[in-house]
Write a structure and sequence with these properties.
12 helices; single chain; mainly alpha; Arc Repressor Mutant, subunit A; elongated; Four Helix Bundle (Hemerythrin (Met), subunit A); 2 domains; about 0% strand
């Protein structure tokens, strides 16, 4: 167009190098995160008082309070009224719990997302049950059998039956000895419980569920990885069939 001239290389460089002033609270937040990462503040520790942080960083109270609130919102610390803020213990469960609201939005935004979660859970459970079969101790097997019977005791109580079902699968995840696997199992089951219980419980077929769980435990007790995977696949596919009818 007339009157316009091309941007020079010098002007592009100046634009790219422009210094952007950051909010003081963001800088305080970075410093606090560094203290956490370096172990200066450990899980269970109380944070320095607001006044101490103001003096240490040379900023006002609003910047400190905004930074602390950001840490609280992200689950790194807990702010309690009338008490000093305390550093939380951070693990996989903490991280996944913090993403619960986002997961709910993703699942409700499009029908296909629930299908994707179902498919992901199937793959997850099949890999998990194979490891459980390889690593299960006598105590693990005993606990699983007790959970099947505990679930049987909840016949006629849909919500309690589903809770017992979730406990069975979470206990399977725990057998792997991998806390991330256990945390992911809890998270996925929680999302399904809130959003679509059909993937956890096919009403009217509780006896089938119990029989499937019992067969899975039998294969785990025999340390039969292939057999455990086969039984779990049948169990998951029946749930998928119920989901398709919902």
């Amino acid at each position: 167009m007339a009157g316009l001239r091309p941007t020079t290389r010098y002007e592009k460089t100046v634009t790219a190098d422009k210094i952007i002033r950051r909010k003081l609270s963001d800088q305080v937040l970075d410093r606090l995160r560094q203290m956490l990462a370096a172990g200066e503040l450990k899980p269970g520790d109380t944070l320095p008082s607001e006044r101490a942080l103001m003096e240490r960083f040379g900023v006002g109270r609003p910047a400190v309070r905004e930074a602390l609130q950001s840490l609280h919102n992200s689950g790194l610390i807990t702010i309690s009224h009338g008490e000093r803020s305390r550093v939380n213990r951070i693990d996989a469960t903490t991280v996944l719990t913090q993403s619960d609201d986002l997961a709910r939005m993703v699942l409700s935004s499009a029908p296909d997302n629930l299908n994707h979660l179902r498919e992901a859970r199937r793959m997850f459970e099949l890999g998990m049950v194979r490891q459980a079969a390889e690593r299960a101790t006598d105590k693990d097997v005993s606990d699983l059998r007790a959970l099947v019977e505990a679930q049987r005791a909840q016949l006629g109580q849909p919500e309690d039956f589903i809770a017992a079902d979730m406990a069975f699968h979470i206990r399977l995840a725990a057998i792997t000895g991998n806390p991330i696997i256990e945390s992911v199992s809890r998270a996925m089951l929680g999302w399904l419980f809130e959003y679509h219980t059909t993937l956890l419980h096919w009403s009217g077929n509780e006896d089938i569920t119990l029989a499937e769980h019992a067969r899975i435990v039998d294969r785990i007790a025999a340390h039969d990885g292939d057999g455990a995977v086969t039984e779990m696949a049948r169990h998951m596919d029946r749930s998928a069939e119920a989901f398709g009818q919902a």
